[in-house]
Design brief:
Keywords: Hydrolase, Metal-binding
Helix content: 25-40%
Protein name: Survival protein SurE-like phosphatase/nucleotidase domain-containing protein
Largest sheet: 9 strands, mixed
Structural class: alpha/beta
InterPro entries: SurE, SurE-like_Pase/nucleotidase, SurE-like_sf
Shape: globular
Family: Belongs to the SurE nucleotidase family.
Distance between the termini: 38 Å
Number of helices: 9
Order of helices and strands: HEHEEEHEHHEHEEEHEHEH
Number of strands: 11
Amino acid sequence: MKKNMLPPGLVNNLQEVLSKKGGNKNDGEKPKDDSTVTSTSSAAPDEYDSSKPVILVTNGEGVDSLGLVYLVQALLGLGLYNVHVCAPQLDKSFSAHSVTFGETITVASAEIDGAVAYEVSGTPVDCVSLALSGALFSWSKPLLVISGINRGSSCGHRMYLSGVVAGAREALISGVPSLSLSLNWKREESQENDFKDAVAVSLPLIKAAIRDIEKGVFPKSCFLNIEIPTSPLANKGFKLTKQSMWRPTLCWQAVSANRHPGAAHLMSNQQSLGLQLAQLGRDASAAGAARRGTTQSKNEEVVSVGAAKSDTRVKKYFRLEFVDKEMETTDEDLDFKALNNGFIAVTPLSVSLQLESDIQTAASSWISGVVSDGSEQ
């Protein structure tokens, strides 16, 4: 078990003071309650107010996900920022820190009212890398990158698989402050409105981060992974946590070929294409032979095209499923433990494991300043 690197007394006091800052159900700010999530974009692709900072939003689940859309609506509702979106076209929640190399990706405008938004046929890392490259947007660098809000926890070893965490990590690698946010979604308990509540309870920390980035006092060596409990409005406040060793069981299930429509479709297409090519070859050979026969050319060899070879390799099909498992621990400062206990878990993460103690110290100092300001207000 790793030694707790937090300053003495911070862990005990953090929940109480941060809850006054706005991390509980009484103080949370909610975005406007619009019944329509998306509509035709009213912003021109290259137009933005240069007097306002740029916030770049991405995620792992795709540009149409409720967590992203409600977050964008809330940020726009503040009227303080240019909100630009660059997110995957499809669900890439478990793409980890992968990039699309050697292939052309497609970027299309997306419809999120009030925001300049693009959907990308790539991963979250592709989205952030492209957005920060200067090739897509007219600005050179955003003030902050926010990745989320993801459907499902990214605690423990899931961080290594998580596309939403990878989006924030890529921003840090590129020198841009970032946050990743996830809602501990439970299939039998959670509802779509929980995303609005998740946005509401996380806004105080987001605004504090933006404020201190502008002041130059936000930690530069890490990004923050924010885990929101299943019932956001019932949270017990923010809690600074450490990454745990928790991981789900990776369960591979064998899938029968006749129950795998994709495989059957692919095989039928291949067989159909082979038959078509074979028939075209026979037709071409017959036509050529007929022409040669009419001209009575001698010593000419008729070449026929044989049928395409069938694939005789043995193929098997498998599907990966995650099975959550319990992890016994007495360390209340671990991410999944705090999350399960109802706290909003805030875990500082870096790309360098050697800086762990420095990261904890920097994050602790920053959050201590945030909560001190909150207690004085």
